[in-house]
Design goal:
mainly alpha; Helix Hairpins
Amino acid sequence: MAIGTKELAITELDSFENERLAEELKKAKAELFNLRFQSATGQLESHGRVRQVKRDIARIYTVLRERELGIRVTPAAEPAKATKATKKTEQADAAADTKEA
Protein backbone atom coordinates (compact mmCIF):
# COMPACT_ATOMS: atom_id res chain seq x y z
CA MET A 1 0.00 0.00 0.00
CA ALA A 2 1.64 3.17 -1.16
CA ILE A 3 -0.52 5.77 0.53
CA GLY A 4 -2.34 5.64 3.85
CA THR A 5 -1.36 4.70 7.30
CA LYS A 6 0.38 1.42 7.91
CA GLU A 7 -1.83 0.65 10.91
CA LEU A 8 -4.95 0.66 8.76
CA ALA A 9 -3.83 -1.64 5.96
CA ILE A 10 -6.63 -3.66 4.43
CA THR A 11 -5.23 -6.85 5.97
CA GLU A 12 -5.41 -5.23 9.41
CA LEU A 13 -8.95 -4.00 8.84
CA ASP A 14 -10.07 -7.52 7.95
CA SER A 15 -9.10 -8.71 11.41
CA PHE A 16 -11.09 -5.99 13.22
CA GLU A 17 -14.59 -6.51 14.58
CA ASN A 18 -17.31 -4.13 13.35
CA GLU A 19 -17.24 -2.22 16.66
CA ARG A 20 -13.50 -1.67 16.33
CA LEU A 21 -13.96 -0.48 12.73
CA ALA A 22 -16.59 2.01 13.89
CA GLU A 23 -14.17 3.24 16.55
CA GLU A 24 -11.35 3.64 14.00
CA LEU A 25 -13.74 5.46 11.66
CA LYS A 26 -14.69 7.87 14.42
CA LYS A 27 -11.02 8.58 15.22
CA ALA A 28 -10.18 9.09 11.54
CA LYS A 29 -13.07 11.51 11.05
CA ALA A 30 -12.00 13.48 14.12
CA GLU A 31 -8.44 13.64 12.80
CA LEU A 32 -9.67 14.80 9.38
CA PHE A 33 -11.70 17.54 11.05
CA ASN A 34 -8.64 18.71 12.97
CA LEU A 35 -6.49 18.62 9.85
CA ARG A 36 -9.03 20.66 7.89
CA PHE A 37 -9.21 23.16 10.73
CA GLN A 38 -5.41 23.44 10.76
CA SER A 39 -5.42 23.89 7.00
CA ALA A 40 -7.96 26.70 7.18
CA THR A 41 -5.93 28.55 9.83
CA GLY A 42 -2.64 28.03 8.00
CA GLN A 43 -1.13 25.80 10.69
CA LEU A 44 -1.07 22.55 8.70
CA GLU A 45 2.46 21.28 8.18
CA SER A 46 1.80 18.08 6.24
CA HIS A 47 -0.83 18.42 3.52
CA GLY A 48 -0.34 14.81 2.48
CA ARG A 49 -1.75 13.66 5.80
CA VAL A 50 -5.21 14.91 4.77
CA ARG A 51 -5.11 12.59 1.76
CA GLN A 52 -3.94 9.65 3.89
CA VAL A 53 -6.75 10.09 6.39
CA LYS A 54 -9.35 10.40 3.62
CA ARG A 55 -8.13 7.15 2.13
CA ASP A 56 -8.23 5.45 5.52
CA ILE A 57 -11.85 6.55 5.95
CA ALA A 58 -12.73 5.24 2.49
CA ARG A 59 -10.96 1.97 3.23
CA ILE A 60 -12.96 1.49 6.45
CA TYR A 61 -16.24 2.27 4.69
CA THR A 62 -15.35 -0.23 1.97
CA VAL A 63 -14.68 -3.03 4.45
CA LEU A 64 -17.92 -2.30 6.33
CA ARG A 65 -19.96 -2.28 3.11
CA GLU A 66 -18.35 -5.46 1.80
CA ARG A 67 -19.18 -7.20 5.08
CA GLU A 68 -22.75 -5.95 4.80
CA LEU A 69 -23.02 -7.40 1.29
CA GLY A 70 -21.36 -10.65 2.31
CA ILE A 71 -18.26 -10.16 0.16
CA ARG A 72 -15.97 -10.10 3.19
CA VAL A 73 -16.31 -12.32 6.21
CA THR A 74 -16.62 -10.80 9.65
CA PRO A 75 -13.91 -12.27 11.85
CA ALA A 76 -15.27 -14.91 14.20
CA ALA A 77 -14.68 -14.71 17.89
CA GLU A 78 -11.72 -16.75 18.99
CA PRO A 79 -12.86 -20.21 20.04
CA ALA A 80 -12.42 -21.03 23.69
CA LYS A 81 -9.66 -23.46 24.49
CA ALA A 82 -11.05 -26.92 24.99
CA THR A 83 -10.26 -28.50 28.32
CA LYS A 84 -10.06 -32.21 29.09
CA ALA A 85 -13.53 -32.10 30.64
CA THR A 86 -15.09 -30.58 27.52
CA LYS A 87 -13.33 -33.09 25.30
CA LYS A 88 -14.70 -35.97 27.40
CA THR A 89 -18.19 -34.47 27.25
CA GLU A 90 -17.97 -34.07 23.48
CA GLN A 91 -16.80 -37.68 23.12
CA ALA A 92 -19.66 -38.91 25.31
CA ASP A 93 -22.16 -36.90 23.26
CA ALA A 94 -20.75 -38.31 20.04
CA ALA A 95 -20.96 -41.85 21.41
CA ALA A 96 -24.58 -41.29 22.50
CA ASP A 97 -25.45 -39.98 19.04
CA THR A 98 -24.03 -43.08 17.34
CA LYS A 99 -25.99 -45.38 19.70
CA GLU A 100 -29.24 -43.54 18.94
CA ALA A 101 -28.74 -43.81 15.18
